[in-house]
Amino acid sequence: MATIERSLIVFKPDAVQRGIIGEILSRFERAGLKIVGVKMLQPSYDHYFHHYENIGKMISRRGQKAFDVTLSMMNEGPVVAFVLEGIEAISLIRKMVGATEPKSALPGTIRGDYAHMSFSHADLNDVGIPNIIHASGDASDAEQEINHWFSESELFSYELTNEKFTQTKKK
Q1: If one looks up domain 4-150 in CATH, what number appears?
Q2: Looking at the whole model, is its pTM more than 0.85?
Q3: Is 134 annotated as catalytic?
């Protein structure tokens, strides 16, 4: 049974600095996803540490160097965080975002259309990979990430006009 889910997306500093947030966000809205939370911020090291290691286990999965390079890149400017809601939102957003490595992301995905760097090039040059956006990987990550980035008072419930055509209500 299809379920309504919430997912965190974070437009990374490269997306903010390129001025492409609105263009990309409109893709999510056109797909029927609803914005239920939004804010611009420049998180602290501790905030990113919790996000990338306590939730994402980046150090244990990819190593300290990858973690350090990622945090350095994330501190290059502000980010814009959104919580999106919709039917099976997590898998839909992941499909729309594309592969983590922009070089491997298919055309038509956000990373495939707006980024191109390979992991090997980033590693060779000791830089983070500018891949535009973070999206929650699964329901557990989404719940933890949303709770980390947003307070309950920053999330909203309301109905979009198109929801009466895209969602069935129980009778």
Answers
A1: 3.30.70.141
A2: yes
A3: yes
